[in-house]
Amino acid sequence: MSNTDFIKKIAPDAQRMYKNYKILASLIIAQGCLESAYGNSGLAVDGKNLFGIKGEYNGQYVIMKTWEVINGRNVQVDAKFRKYPSWSESIQDLANLYVKGTSWDPNHYKAVVGETNYKKATAALVSAGYATDPSYATKLNNIIETYSLTKYDTVVTEPTNPTPTPVPLPSVVVEEEIEISVDAYSSDITVDPTANVPITDGNFRIQYKNGTVIDLARNLSVLVRSFRISSPDPEIEYETIPGRNGSLRMGKTYGNRTITADCVFFGADNTDYHLLQAELFHALYKDDEYFLISEATPKKRWRVELSSSFTPDRMGSTGEFTLTFVSASTYCESVATTLSAFTFDSDLWQLGEGLTEETFKYKHSTNTFKIYNAGTVRIDPLELPLNISYKGASNKLEIYNKTTGDKWTYSGTSSASDTIKLTGVIARKGSTSIFGNTNHGLITLAPGWNEFVLDGTSSKFEITFDFRFYYFA
User: Fold this and answer.
1) Residue 77: in which H helix or E strand, if any?
2) Domain boundary at 304, 330, 356, which?
3) Is residue 245 a contact partner of residue 238, using CB atoms and an 8 Å limit?
4) CA distance 353 to 389
5) Are β-strands 61-70 and 406-409 bridged in parallel, bridged antiparallel, or unpaired?
6) Are residues 136 and 104 in the same domain?
7) Looking at the structure, do residues 141 and 58 belong to the same domain, yes or no?
8) Which of 170, 122, 148 lies closest to 11, judged by CA?
9) Which of 100, 308, 402, 409 gives 324 a disulfide partner, CB atoms 3.0 to 4.6 angstroms apart?
10) Using N-to-C axis directions, what is the helix angle for 25-36 and 118-127, rounded to 10°?
11) How many CB atoms lie within 10 A of CB 298?
């Protein structure tokens, strides 16, 4: 095999690594040329190992003699090198090394990933101690320049699935609150310790309504290269009036949100490829909606379902694909509710949720109090779950939010053992509807602090507010 034939053979795999991991294809090709004698070395032939990576690969290895520069002298030693099924796996393994780093330092080759200047990339390798040869970077640069390898530092953009047409939301439908007792990013979740793919900030977990959680990287060996959330799509309604210039603004709503994830899954061999593909289909295709929780924002979740088909683009035992999800809700929501503990040890909250150092209480036994909505969205029980519970005696109970001006009144009475619950538009005392004896009012919560005043209370009572915080992102 000639030098140019070897370069052409490994170039497609190197370009794929550049697309997937932002590692220059010219660097990978030059390393393959130098370290495998253009595919003709014994290690490249017997072990399919192009880069001299030592150790074992799925328990497979070959023993080879190698020259090392030790204390300034060339010394020949026996070493165990990884044995791969093909050159493709060897190239993939090199990319994994650069992205994941070493066992003692996950950022050991961080300077190589994302570098667009080949001379800086080769220098970064030497600085990281990848090779003991002090002229390693110079040799790689000469190969890149001799064969004009920078022409392979391009990414082929592939078409993605089109964004589905948003389905209009019902105007007065209250989503049923889904109670899940499992925190999708708690330490109690068991994941597969054998999974060996990089954990990016785009990695996400699927949380089903029964509490089951699946982590794409840790459970399914899926590398999530990107997790993109579309911005809200404003739908502004105008009305024109004959004889009047311009138009009259009637209101504004927001449509569905789209989440797109670019992924690659890694099978150990051909059989494992098909098993992983089946597991992936089973995880994503459900009759009901589920939640996505990304590694970057582990205490927020999106209610979604898969909206487009996908076909993995196979290369050896790896499959590249793009997932498109649609969220019928405009907002993401906090994983925890206001009745969860607001402490650092609870591990239920994160930066970016609008929380401050103040003390938040959502259970009160006084006639005046404040309720804090840490989200950026107004809580309207016609659209978002809000549960208010009053336990105790009352006579013509009145709940008044001074901040929003909302008032709810009940013309009846309750005893000390009674509980009145407001759930969306539904009002009950115990299991009996009392909606007909109310003013049909609704309590909403503005973002930030909401001041409340109660009237008609008797003796001891307790009122609680149970809801999640909602955000545009």
Assistant:
1) strand 73-82
2) 330
3) no
4) 25
5) unpaired
6) yes
7) yes
8) 148
9) 308
10) 60
11) 17
Q: Are residues 117 and 217 in the same domain?
A: no
Mean predicted confidence (pLDDT) in 447-464? 96
Closest CA to 61 of 77, 45, 49, 76: 49
Distance CA 158, CA 328 (A): 27
Say if residue 153 is exposed, middle or buried (CB neighbours under 10 Å; 0-12, 13-18, 19+): middle
Structural domain harbouring 94: 3-152
| Rg value, the chain, Cα | 30
State which of 109, 126, 152 marks the end of a domain.
152
Q: Quick one: DSSP state of residue 52?
A: -
Angle at 159 between CA 153 and CA 161, to 5 degrees: 145
Residue 71: phi, psi to the nearest 5?
55, 35
Distance of CA 90 to the CA centre of its chain: 28
The answer as to whether 165 is a domain residue is no
Cβ atoms of 389 and 336 closer than 8 Å: no
pLDDT at 72: 57
What's the token pair of residue 215?
């982590």
Position of tokens 């007909």? Answer: 436
Token pair for 446: 């503005």
Residue 287 CA to chain centroid, in angstroms? 21
Note the pLDDT tens digit of each residue in 134-188.
788 999 999 999 989 999 997 544 444 444 444 333 334 444 454 444 444 443 3
Is the pLDDT assigned to residue 273 strictly greater than 70? yes
